[in-house]
Specification:
The complex is a heterodimer. Chain A is an alpha/beta fold. Chain A contains 9 helices and 19 strands. Chain B is mostly beta strands. In chain B, strands 2-1-7-5-6 form a 5-stranded mixed beta sheet, covered by helices on one side. The termini of chain B are far apart. Classes of the chains: A alpha/beta, B mainly beta. At the A-B interface, strand 8 and helix 3 of A face helix 1 and strand 4 of B.
Chain lengths: 363, 101
């Protein structure tokens, strides 16, 4: 059986930072990702990030992913396993089961585990919501920005949070027509800077609207049109307000939910926290869960955004390394710095929801 | 449709390869997901559901949701949103749960 000091599951922003921080302290790290490359969902983020300079403000996500991946790959203390899906964690003997290239099953026994598996897209119930042409907003981003294929000609974006707004703008950059952005909430959820960008390009953002139904093309079976309708202040649809949109793509951007299967399997105490996207693990301020030696970071620890994921990753990496006795002399300083940065990112009205969510998780 | 000019991105594509979809010859780029190549060729319906035989496309594009299962080179239940395209692949619409031969 393969052994390592710290196993990092997931090579996105949180996992990359966790691996780098732990290696910097002196620990030996194995980072695993199911994709053929590191970077997670940073590879499709063509927009520039906010936050402070330390979190790569004004740098495009895609470039942050490249920089961090390159640092991980050249670090002699970090081993990278690609095309490697962690499919099980056996808490009794602390062994991870990893499927490599869909062919071999590898067992790994780490001393500490950092789970940075990210999140998956949520769905929305409406008539015919399973038609081909109805995609997650992140899926459309992958298709366009990673693989260079546009999803269709005319798009209805459902959800006016940051992802919905950013992906709408990116669709237009790729030459696709965005017919409307709708959101059932009475106000726009995303940042104004993203909303005004698409509004300036003439895309209507219709709040208090939701999808009533989708209809297929009789010949192909794929999406041809969408019917939307207004909702009242109790989220009830108002008959008579229907509008028909001729679209071949509906993007669903109604949030993400943590990919927490490994945490369940490890026996971590979990709690349903709507503000954080679903079930998340209770943890202390060092990002350690109720199962000693199992840490969380990034969206799996509560859906937030990439900048905070990176800092959570760093924090988890520092603490996992420290718990093994590693410290290059900078642990206290780095830890304090990371905790201050998280506090800053979550301050103000924008961070209120996250603060409410996190308050329910502390150990 | 392929994106040719993009204000921010440039795409590194593999060599052009031929594959078949339900017996029809199509072209794509080696190493890209099968679903991307199919989408570029106008194919939206990838499979039909087990019970009600409803058409299915992809949904998440990163291997999470299992909406895009197809039969590839005779093997059923392949996630075509992540499976890489290779020269001469035989891709078929999957009906129902698929059989292991």
């Amino acid at each position: 059986m393969k052994k390592t000091e710290i196993a990092v599951i997931g090579g996105g922003p949180a996992g990359l930072m966790a691996a780098l921080a732990a290696a910097e302290m002196g620990a030996r790290v194995t980072i695993m990702d199911r994709n053929s490359r590191l970077g997670g969902q940073l590879v499709k983020q063509t927009h520039m990030f906010f936050g402070s300079e330390k979190e790569y403000a004004s740098v495009r996500g895609i470039d942050i992913g490249k920089v961090l991946s390159a640092e991980v790959l050249k670090n002699p203390r970090i081993e990278t396993m690609l095309d490697s899906t962690v499919i099980g964690y056996y808490p009794d003997d602390g062994v991870l089961g990893v499927e490599v290239e869909e062919k071999t099953f590898v067992k790994i026994k780490p001393e500490k585990v950092i789970v940075a598996t990210g999140a998956s897209e949520k769905f929305l119930p409406f008539e015919n919501n399973d038609l081909p042409g109805i995609y997650g907003a992140g899926a459309v981003q992958t298709l366009m920005n990673e693989h260079g294929v546009v999803p269709g000609e005319n798009v209805l974006m459902v959800g006016a949070g940051n992802i919905g707004l950013i992906v709408s703008y990116q669709l237009m950059q790729a030459g696709v027509n965005v017919k409307a952005i709708i959101d059932a909430a009475p106000s726009i959820g995303g940042y104004w800077v993203h909303a005004s960008k698409v509004a300036r390009l003439g895309v209507p953002i219709m709040t208090s609207y939701t999808v009533k139904a989708a209809y297929p093309n009789e010949l192909t079976g794929a999406l041809e049109r969408a019917v939307i309708w207004q909702v009242d202040d109790k989220w009830q649809p108002i008959p008579g307000t229907e509008k028909v949109l001729k679209v071949d793509v509906i993007c669903i951007s109604v949030g993400l939910s943590p990919l927490a299967e490994i945490l369940w399997q490890a026996g971590c105490r979990m709690k349903y926290v709507p503000q954080l996207g679903g079930h998340v693990a209770l943890r202390d301020e060092n990002m350690e869960t109720t199962v000693p030696g199992v840490y969380v970071a990034g969206d799996v620890a509560g859906v937030e955004e990439a900048s905070s994921a990176m800092i959570e990753g760093r924090l988890a990496g520092l603490n996992a390394a420290k718990s093994l006795g590693y410290d290059n002399g900078k642990y206290d300083e780095k830890r304090r710095e990371a905790m201050e940065q998280l506090q800053n990112l979550r301050s103000g009205p924008v961070g209120e929801k996250i603060r409410q969510g996190l308050a329910q998780l502390a150990l | 449709m392929r994106i040719v000019n993009h204000p921010i991105l440039s795409f590194e594509r593999g060599r052009e390869v031929e594959f078949t979809f339900d017996g029809k010859k199509m072209k794509g780029y080696e190493g890209e997901p099968i679903a991307a190549a199919l989408h570029d060729n106008g194919v939206r319906v990838l499979s039909y559901s087990k019970h009600l035989h409803r058409p299915r496309g992809f949904y998440c594009a990163i291997g999470n949701c299992s909406s895009c299962l197809m039969t590839v080179n005779g093997e059923p239940n392949v996630r075509v949103c992540t499976e890489k395209l290779r020269e001469g692949m035989v891709v078929e619409t999957q009906k129902g749960r698929g059989d292991i031969k």
